[in-house]
Amino acid sequence: MANRQSILREARVLRVAAGHPYLCHMHAAFQTQNCAFIAMEFASGGSLKDLLKKEHHLKTRQVIFYSAEMVCGLQYLHSRGIIHCDLKPDNILISSEGHIKIADFGLAVEHVFGHDTTCGYRGTPKYMAPEVLADQRYNAAVDWWAFGIILCQMATGWYPFDDKHGDAALRHSILENRAKVPTWTPSKLVILLRKVSLSNYFISLIHLSNTCTHLS
């Protein structure tokens, strides 16, 4: 039943996503007595995870291009009260034309606007914001936290927290915001990462406009 509810939630979000070019689109949704199904567009470019595995890190122009499209897609979702809650390279697809397609809305939260908050343990631990890991209330800023991690991975090939010493070490490094990036990381990127990877979600939202300015 839980899986069925997740599929139905994803179908609802995909209907909203149909209005934006950088969100994955749904061709059809249907259900039987016991199952629900979604037919989605095919992204022949694979996922961002696949691309990073192949290239390790991306050229600056690619980082800016993909980041700008992700920002546009996330802003569209958030303006409609939707938090993705599981943003990660696996869920960022690349179309045949080379554009970003944010996908996998099965864990999304609906009807959360502005400074409204929600709760619940959702997502992939490596990309969870501190508020989620600490079982606190949160809002759309958790997507920007995940975006900051992805931005770091695209630009440097590094995951910025301790994911080599088990779940407890990973959790601790995120809760303490002990992000590390290579010493050769450009200073402007470091500044941008600091703006989007802040543990306080209200501060994160205040800095969002500056994030978009950096990308433009």
The largest pleated sheet is described as: 2 strands, antiparallel
Supply the CATH class: Mainly Alpha
Amount of beta strand = 5-15%
CATH superfamily: Transferase(Phosphotransferase) domain 1
The CATH topology is what? Transferase(Phosphotransferase), domain 1
Number of discrete helical segments: 8
Helical content (DSSP H or I, runs of 4+): 40-55%
What is the CA–CA distance across the termini?
A: 43 Å
Shape: globular
- Biggest sheet: strands side by side, in what order? 1-2
CATH architectural type: Orthogonal Bundle
The structure class reads: mainly alpha
Overall residue-averaged pLDDT value: 86
| H/E series | HEEHHEEHHHHH
Q: How many distinct folded domains?
A: 1
Total strands: the figure is 4
Q: Gyration radius, to the nearest Å?
A: 17 Å
| Unreliable stretches | 199-207
What do you see in this structure?
Keywords: ATP-binding, Kinase, Nucleotide-binding, Serine/threonine-protein kinase, Transferase. The protein has 216 residues and is mostly helical. The protein has one domain: Transferase(Phosphotransferase) domain 1 (Transferase(Phosphotransferase), domain 1, Orthogonal Bundle). It is built from 8 helices and 4 strands; from the N terminus they run αββααββααααα. It has a two-stranded antiparallel sheet with strand order 1-2. The protein has a two-stranded antiparallel sheet with strand order 3-4. Helix 3 runs antiparallel to helix 5 (141-156) and helix 5 (141-156) packs antiparallel against helix 7. It is globular and about 55 Å long. The chain starts with a helix and ends with a helix.
